[in-house]
């Protein structure tokens, strides 16, 4: 085993050699990096031995906690057989078994599994399958290769995924590289431009989408959507029936429904997949993050027999789906993904979630009284708090004030790790978090927001928002 490098040396090397994702490195270089060395359950432990609650499930991937014995064992057992062999022209037992299990739990009608390595590639695969499907299924219909998606959508960071994404801060500067798409307003109820409330808003939100589909369906290959929760947009939650209606419209107008369940899949919304809340089967479904319980990078794109069969033919017809990655079907990843599904069964994870979801809701409710808290959104174990300048006008806090970041830094001092999205604080605890851990997380969250509202030690008269 390599000798243990002292924490300070690691910190120096990190600042000297690394470039971190979504991180302003100039700032990073000025700070002491938090270096996580180990984990246990809902806790992360750094090189100094300090313990933190993992309030984001290590960016939305972890489900059953860190160092779960079943998951650990699955990797160790597979390692005794083989770490990796290619999936191009070969197969392997865990990948085969996992595909069968995934089809068993997926929305009815999804029949085939295509593996890749991460959420972005799972989305890329879905886009390419959709385009090729229409070329081969209806070659006479003319080009059908445009995608419809919602504004503020996030489907990953590769070029195809950002083409169907729409977060200006992340994607704006790459516009020259992106293919053109059609977009529609998302169901962002808190910032509804018409100030409507559910259910009267339902049609107002869906009518423009129906109009787009009606007039442009001939060129639209697919509608890409994060079902129920637009996560990276700041947990924008669609109203009941919204997804179901989108499914109906896609069927009516002959447009493929591409569900990006990368964030919502594997119990995060309270059911195995978000689509299952509304009895929806998409034509293509991208999964990743929770697929391995947060252990290994693995992803899959699931599809129907109708789409799969459009790729069948004699070799020389060249209907093959020419796409694949070096690590496709990685046995270690598939073995731990199988163990993840086993834990869902043996620990009855989904049934156990119901009381936890209700508890989280009760815990979050009083935070609505804090002066900065504009909106609290929750679906299953995905929750967010949108902080605002003015609760009545809902005026946003300027991004420059970095309120989310400041709250996260306060929470870190108190032993909770968070990763906010602008002014939106995201809380996405591991599904296995205990009641006490959930209570502690929300308690720290409330304290941290409160501290950022009132400068500590300021006399009462001066207790105005520091923004
Ligand atoms: C995280 C995410 C992705 C991208 O997944 P990566 O594994 O980070 O490439 C795609 N879609 C959604 C909805 C996500 O939340």
UniProtKB/TrEMBL annotation:
A GO MF term: adenosylmethionine-8-amino-7-oxononanoate transaminase activity
Marked site positions, Participates in the substrate recognition with KAPA and in a stacking interaction with the adenine ring of SAM: 22
Coiled-coil parts of chain: none
Pfam families given in the database record: Aminotran_3
Cell compartment(s), UniProt: Cytoplasm
A GO cellular component annotation in the UniProt record: cytoplasm
Positions bearing N6-(pyridoxal phosphate)lysine: 289
Cofactor(s) needed by this chain: pyridoxal 5'-phosphate
Keyword Transferase: yes
UniProt-annotated binding residues for pyridoxal 5'-phosphate: 119-120, 260, 325-326
Catalysed conversion reaction: (8S)-8-amino-7-oxononanoate + S-adenosyl-L-methionine = S-adenosyl-4-methylsulfanyl-2-oxobutanoate + (7R,8S)-7,8-diammoniononanoate
Transmembrane regions listed in the UniProt entry: none
Annotated GO biological process: biotin biosynthetic process
Residues noted as binding substrate in the record, renumbered to the chain: 154, 289, 324, 419
UniProt EC number: 2.6.1.62
Principal localisation: cytoplasm
Record keyword Disulfide bond present: no
Keyword field: Aminotransferase, Biotin biosynthesis, Cytoplasm, Pyridoxal phosphate, S-adenosyl-L-methionine, Transferase
Pathway listed: Cofactor biosynthesis; biotin biosynthesis; 7,8-diaminononanoate from 8-amino-7-oxononanoate (SAM route): step 1/1
Record family assignment: Belongs to the class-III pyridoxal-phosphate-dependent aminotransferase family. BioA subfamily.
HAMAP family: BioA (MF_00834)
Subunit annotation: Homodimer.
Function, as annotated: Catalyzes the transfer of the alpha-amino group from S-adenosyl-L-methionine (SAM) to 7-keto-8-aminopelargonic acid (KAPA) to form 7,8-diaminopelargonic acid (DAPA). It is the only aminotransferase known to utilize SAM as an amino donor.
The protein's name: Adenosylmethionine-8-amino-7-oxononanoate aminotransferase
Native organism: Nitrospira lenta
Gene: bioA
């Amino acid at each position: 085993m390599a000798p243990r490098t002292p924490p300070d040396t690691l910190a120096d090397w990190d600042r000297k050699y690394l470039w971190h994702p979504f991180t302003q490195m100039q700032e990073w270089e000025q700070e002491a990096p938090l270096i996580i060395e180990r984990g246990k359950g809902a806790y992360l432990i750094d090189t100094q031995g300090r313990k933190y609650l993992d309030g984001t499930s290590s960016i939305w991937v972890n489900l059953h906690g860190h160092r779960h014995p079943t998951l650990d064992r699955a990797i160790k057992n597979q390692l005794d057989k083989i770490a990796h062999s290619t999936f191009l022209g070969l197969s392997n037992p865990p990948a085969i078994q996992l595909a069968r299990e995934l089809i068993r739990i997926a929305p009815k009608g999804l029949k085939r599994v295509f593996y890749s390595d991460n959420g972005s590639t799972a989305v890329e695969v879905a886009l390419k399958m959709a385009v090729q499907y229409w070329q081969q299924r209806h070659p006479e219909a003319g080009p059908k290769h445009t995608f419809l998606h919602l504004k503020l959508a996030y489907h990953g960071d590769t070029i195809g995924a950002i083409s169907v994404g729409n977060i200006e801060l992340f994607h704006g500067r790459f516009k020259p590289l992106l293919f053109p798409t059609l977009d529609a307003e998302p169901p962002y109820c808190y910032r509804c431009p018409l100030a409507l409330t559910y259910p009267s808003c339902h049609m107002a939100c869906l009518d423009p989408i129906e109009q787009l589909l009606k007039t442009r369906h001939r060129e639209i290959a697919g509608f890409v959507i994060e079902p129920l929760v637009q996560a990276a947009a700041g947990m924008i939650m669609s109203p009941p029936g919204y997804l179901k209606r989108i499914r109906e419209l896609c069927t009516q107008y002959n447009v493929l429904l591409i569900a990006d369940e990368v964030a919502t899949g594997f119990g995060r919304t309270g059911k195995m997949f978000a689509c299952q809340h509304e009895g929806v089967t998409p034509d293509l479904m991208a999964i990743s993050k929770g697929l391995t319980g947060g252990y290994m990078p693995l992803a899959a794109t699931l599809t129907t027999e109708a789409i799969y069969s459009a790729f069948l033919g004699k070799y020389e017809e060249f209907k093959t789906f020419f796409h694949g990655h070096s690590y496709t079907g990685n046995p270690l990843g598939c073995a731990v993904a199988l163990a993840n599904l086993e834990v869902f069964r043996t620990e009855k994870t989904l049934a156990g979630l119901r009381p936890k979801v209700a508890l989280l809701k009760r815990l979050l409710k009083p935070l609505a009284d804090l002066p900065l808290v504009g909106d609290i959104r929750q679906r299953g174990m995905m929750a967010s708090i949108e902080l605002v300048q003015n609760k009545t006008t809902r005026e946003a806090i300027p991004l420059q004030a970095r309120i989310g970041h400041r709250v996260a830094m306060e929470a870190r001092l108190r032993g909770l790790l968070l990763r906010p999205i602008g002014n939106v604080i995201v809380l996405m605890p591991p599904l296995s978090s205990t009641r006490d851990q959930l209570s502690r997380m929300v308690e720290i969250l409330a304290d941290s927001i409160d501290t950022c509202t009132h400068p500590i030690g300021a006399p009462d008269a001066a207790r105005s928002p520091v923004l």
